[in-house]
Amino acid sequence: MSGHIRHHLERAFTRSPWRSIFILTACFFVLFQFCLILYGVDFARQSTLEGWTDISMLAYLKGDLSPDALRDLEYRIKAIDGVSGVEFVSSSQGLDRMKEWLGRDNPLVEDLAPGVLPDAFDIECSKQAMPKTLAGEISGFPAVADVRWNRGMSTAIAHSYPVIFWAGAFVFMLSVISLGLVIFLSMRNNMIVYARENRILTFLGADKGFVFAPYLIEVSLYVLAASVLSIVAANGVIMYVHGHAPVFAGCPASIGWNLAGQVIGFSFVIGFFSTFLAIRDSSGV
Questions:
Q1: In this structure, what DSSP letter does residue 114 have?
Q2: Sequence-separated (6 or more) residues with CB below 8 Å from residue 183
Q3: pLDDT winner (highest mean) among 13-27, 38-52, 228-242
Q4: How far apart, in whole angstroms, are the C-alpha atoms of residue 254 and residue 233?
Q5: Could you give the C-alpha distances from 233 to 27, 31, 112, in angstroms and in order?
Q6: What is the mean pLDDT of residues 240-256?
Q7: Cα separation of 155 and 46, whole Å?
Q8: How many CB atoms lie under 10 A from the CB of residue 52?
Q9: Distances from the Cα of 79 to the Cα of 128, 135, 169, 260, angstroms
Q10: Orientation of helix 17-50 relative to helix 152-159, angle to 10°
């Protein structure tokens, strides 16, 4: 049995190397796409469980307030229900934050003067806070010129979870069809090429397990290699974006073992199922 499998694998990988490269590459691109969509859907799902945890709110101040006026305003903002923290941000600190966010070489901030932004209070909201109501209450203070807030990326993603889920489901179905067709057609073609040999083995008394086990082993090697490569590549892309784009700082820095296991399991299920269909379809050849 082991000799038969070894002979089949040597023949598959050495006699038709370009065929093997094509199958591996096609499986890699399908699974790479699946890794990214699985990562995105899982992050959106986790965001729905965390609530509004990344609401950012800035209260811009009018003119130059005295230290006593700043302390009094900070105390009054902290006393509002739904505010969990207040931090004073000077004009220069606000500009540094903007440069860090957009990149110090960004032409939008490269030539800005130090005093272009007003002083502000960076307000941290509790999970239960209603940001629109909170912003309206804070803007009522005479020393506050304007209040700006946004839900942050993870909160926005959480509110878009249904759309992300169904888009992910659509891509998942495309991945199933694409990976299944690649494996089915390649294995079926291989079985047709060696149909005479398979018939001789069957005539000599070999059962289907002996005849077709090498094809299952071959598929296992393809999907395992493609899965590992796609996980490594997807993690590389995610880590690069996570490290170079501050807007994605709140996202997971990698796929993680759980999602990696799902990718490998998915590839084996589709690989084996497609190979069994190819065996069944080629049995009459």
A1: T
A2: 23, 27, 219, 222, 223, 270, 271, 274, 275, 278
A3: 228-242
A4: 11
A5: 13, 10, 39
A6: 74
A7: 10
A8: 19
A9: 15, 14, 45, 46
A10: 100
Identify the residue whose tokens are 């490569």: 229
* Cα–Cα distance, 261 to 171 (Å, whole number): 19
> If you compute the radius of gyration of the chain from its CA atoms, what whole number of angstroms results?
29
pLDDT for res 89: 85
Q: Which residues pair with 146 in a beta bridge?
A: 60
Instruction: Determine contact, residues 102/58, Cβ cutoff 8 Å.
Output: no
Triad 254, 257, 262: Cα angle to 5°: 105
Least reliable range by pLDDT among 77-81, 157-161, 212-216, 255-259: 157-161
- Tens-place pLDDT, residues 88-138: 888 778 777 776 766 666 666 566 666 667 888 888 877 666 777 888 888
**68-73 — which CB contacts under 8 Å span 24+ positions?**
69/143, 73/121, 73/141, 73/143, 73/144
Question: What span, in angstroms and rounded, lies between the C-alpha atoms of 158 and 87?
Answer: 27
**Confidence (pTM):** 0.64
CB count, 10 Å around CB of 280? 10
Condensed to tens digits (0 to 9), the pLDDT of residues 194-247 reads 777 767 766 667 667 677 788 888 899 999 999 999 999 999 998 888 777 666
CA distance 135 to 153: 19
Strand order in the sheet with 83-89: 83-89, 120-125, 56-61, 144-150
Q: What is the pLDDT of residues 71-91, one digit of tens each?
A: 888 888 888 888 888 888 887
Q: Which residues pair with 89 in a beta bridge?
A: 120
